[in-house]
TrEMBL record:
Stored PROSITE patterns: RRM
Protein name stated in the entry: Polypyrimidine tract-binding protein 1-like isoform X2
The gene coding this protein: LOC106459809
Species of the source: Limulus polyphemus
UniProt keyword list: Phosphoprotein, Repeat, RNA-binding
Residue ranges of every copy of the RRM domain listed in the record: 63-138, 348-422, 465-540
Top-level taxon in the UniProt lineage: Eukaryota
């Protein structure tokens, strides 16, 4: 046991002085630890330093907290993040080689709050691994003035102290957070927010909405400490690289009243709430949202997010929230309500059924599904021509297409869109009958989202009666365009050129179904020798 001695920090390591040997000695002899390794000052009979023994004194409070079982890739910021909600942090020591760390709080009260919380209310996780928090036998971490520690440690401490000071001046911690997503290029949904915010602690309720053309959410935690940790950890982070920035404040609300469990709101404490969809509720799906209580069941556990501590492994260009490749595709591909029994998926292939086999072609499906992502291949099944497989470029594009196109009417029939078990669409083998029902669009010049961060991501909307037209040549008149759209079989209700740019216009068809057919037939329509029309669904009306 360490009596009357401090734990001294030297260049990111430690040196122990004034040790009395006993069952709870940290090291077997005077030693220095540097970069996680132990350098002994005299030979060891076993040619190896004895293992660091774990603090077992859970009862005597100390302002130094001992954290065990940390992963090898952990950084000082990961350790500091555990303590930020409880008060000011004055020092940190990371022993990577021993899978443990020490965190010094400003006073025993803060340390006691931290230990009590993690032992009774919330299990701390660092980068996917559960860690264990207890009081240390050491009363302080003494930093030698001549050796102020590593630059990274000092930077992490300064950042933590700045965050704590900001919280002290802002005031008003609450269990409910108001979240605004700035610079939204990729789709963000309730499920995406749940995945991110549940990494900090248990999420009770989420309500999402759009205000001033900005996606926003209210997120409720069970206690102020978890909400504060989420705000300090996630505020200012990018969900994807250079976009979809989280702006987090405390809400004035103290409790969220969730009436429906669907893609806009969810009460994870009450899975029996109705969906708000009369059709689904009448089929008995009202209480089945328990399937969605943890939409990421079965995925690997994820650690607490921190700023520069993560980098994307694969899949989407993630910002601070990098996940393993399989998790990334499954998590950030989510975009909308899933029926009970319909699993979240990370694949790129969709099964489209109930097609009008007399009218639908691979090119028609390429154009329609291409509104929501880049279509790579389309296969209309040879023996069941009212079914097709559509392969998208990215999993999140496939989910976006599923969300927006399932149950819309195409050529008089309500199509169904579901995840496919196939990982890709196979081209027919040589000599195999196909009749032109399978087509590869990999090299098509008509892909809308080839450029990363394309502006087209900001203009993705569900099918609507109003279409947005662009790339209109100056020689084409309103009557020319209206006539062309009427020739698709629908009626034109209204038309309007953009006042400041006649290359763009809005055209309103008689119904959503007419609009869908018009988009299929008119996208890439040649209006002049060198001009092809661009058509997409619009959120506006005329």
């Amino acid at each position: 046991m360490l009596l009357g001695a401090g734990l001294h920090v030297l260049n990111g390591g430690i040196r122990i002085s004034g040790l009395k040997r006993g069952s709870d000695e940290l090291l077997s002899q005077t030693a220095a630890v540097s970069n996680g390794g132990i350098m002994t000052s005299q030979p060891d009979n076993n040619n190896d330093a004895k293992k660091v023994k774990l603090d077992r004194n859970l009862n005597k409070p100390s302002r130094v907290v001992h954290v065990r079982n940390i992963p090898m890739e952990a950084m000082e910021t990961d350790i500091i993040n555990l303590g930020i909600p409880f008060g000011r942090i004055t020092n940190v020591l990371l022993l990577k080689g021993k899978n443990q760390a020490f965190l010094e709080m400003a006073d025993e009260t803060a340390a006691t709050s931290m230990v009590n919380y993690y032992n009774n209310s919330g299990t701390p996780i660092i980068r996917g691994r559960t860690v264990y928090v207890q009081f240390s036998n050491h009363k302080e971490l003494k930093t030698d003035n001549a050796h102020p520690g590593s630059i990274s440690t000092q930077a992490a401490l300064q950042a933590a102290q700045a965050l704590t000071s900001e919280t002290d001046t802002q005031g008003g911690p609450n269990t409910v957070l108001r979240v605004i997503v700035d610079n939204q290029i990729y789709p963000i949904t309730l499920d995406v927010l749940y995945q991110i915010f549940s990494r900090v602690g248990k999420v009770l309720k989420i309500i999402t909405f759009t205000k001033n053309n900005t996606f926003q959410a209210l997120i409720q935690y069970p206690d102020v400490i978890t909400a504060q940790a989420a705000k300090l950890s996630l505020d200012g982070q990018n969900i994807y690289n250079a976009c979809c920035t989280l702006r987090i404040d405390y809400s004035k609300l103290t409790n969220l009243n969730v009436k429906y469990n669907n893609d806009k709101s969810r009460d994870f404490t009450n899975p029996t709430l109705p969906t708000g969809d009369i059709g689904l509720d009448s089929l008995g799906f009202g209480g089945a949202m328990s399937m969605m209580g943890s939409p990421f069941a079965g995925l690997p556990s994820l650690g607490a997010p921190l700023t520069a501590a993560y980098s994307a492994a694969a899949g989407l260009p993630l910002g601070a929230f990098a996940l393993p490749p399989a998790v990334a595709s499954a998590t950030f591909g989510l975009a909308g309500f899933r029926l009970p029994g319909q699993q979240s998926f990370g694949g790129c292939v969709l099964l489209v059924s109930n097609l009008n086999e007399e009218m639908v072609t691979p090119d028609a499906l390429f154009t329609l599904f291409g509104v929501y992502g880049d279509v790579i291949r389309v296969k209309i099944l040879f023996n069941k021509k009212d079914n097709a497989l559509v392969q998208m470029s990215e999993p999140h594009q496939a989910q976006l297409a599923l969300t927006n196109l399932d149950k819309i009417k195409v050529y008089g029939k309500e199509i169904r869109v579901n995840p496919s078990k196939h990982q890709l669409v196979q081209m027919p083998k040589e000599g195999q009958p196909d009749a032109g029902l399978t087509k590869d669009f990999t090299s098509s010049p008509l892909h809308r989202f080839k450029k990363p961060g394309s502006k087209n991501y900001q203009n993705i909307y569900p099918p609507s009666a109003t279409l947005h037209l662009s790339n209109i040549p100056a020689s084409v008149t309103e009557e020319d365009i209206k006539t062309a759209f009427q020739d698709t079989g629908g009626s034109v209700v209204a038309f309007k050129f953009f006042p400041k740019d006649r290359k763009m216009a809005l055209i309103q068809m008689g119904s959503v179904e007419e609009s869908v057919i018009a988009l299929i037939k008119m996208h890439n329509y040649q209006l002049a020798d060198s001009s092809h029309l661009r058509v997409s669904f619009s959120k506006s009306t005329i």
